[in-house]
Amino acid sequence: xxxxxxxxxxxxxxxxxxxxxxxxxxxxxxxxxxSGTLAVTRVNWSGNPSDSVLTATDVSAAGAKNAAPRAPxxxxxxxxxxxxxxxxxxxxxxxxxxxxxxxxxxxRHCASIARALGRAAVRAYGxxxxxxxxxxxxDTAFASGVxxxxx
Length: 151
Prior knowledge:
The protein has helices spanning 2-40, 56-63, 72-86, 89-102, 110-125, 127-132, 141-150.
């Protein structure tokens, strides 16, 4: 009887780990594709088409005549994620705070953008170094993104 209890206990401990492994196996390829896409995307904030750089995403967007315009918070998030990769999370957080100060309507999206930056920082720098960039932008959303990506 004790043997079957031990087997059930062992299987019980394997279940959540196996589920986590399966979840990572499904999510990780998506994250890698998105981070690769963000690495080659450049957003033209000047509004002057002569300053723009044509990238692969621009070509596909040019062909879609009925494509819906992207929301400002999505454009900002993508730009900041790219900036985090090219520079560091501290620069991205500073620019997030400046963007929210300049456009208060972005304030309601600040926490979700900061959490996304926290998760991306863990992927790029590891949990300890990512946490060192934490600052009080959008409360503690960056730190919660770091913690969520680390756990």
